[in-house]
Amino acid sequence: MSERSSILNILAEALSFSADKLSVNEDLMGAIPEFDSMAVVNILLLLENHYGFIVDDDEIDAEIFSTVASLTEFVEQKLIHNE
Length: 83
Fold this sequence. Notes:
mainly alpha
């Protein structure tokens, strides 16, 4: 499974809807009513558990959560730095 597919599944789980409703260029923060601060915390926890990395508070930025693509890029960068 690609990182993007995993992230779509994590987003769907955190937001409680089908991954089929999300696309790669989907706007997240501000565009999806369920995407609130609690969703951000839940998504970060799910990402940390799934990928085994830690996201520090100073790494969290609204731009990371602007689209599925930006979140995927963030995860890919975390994985590169954790190798």
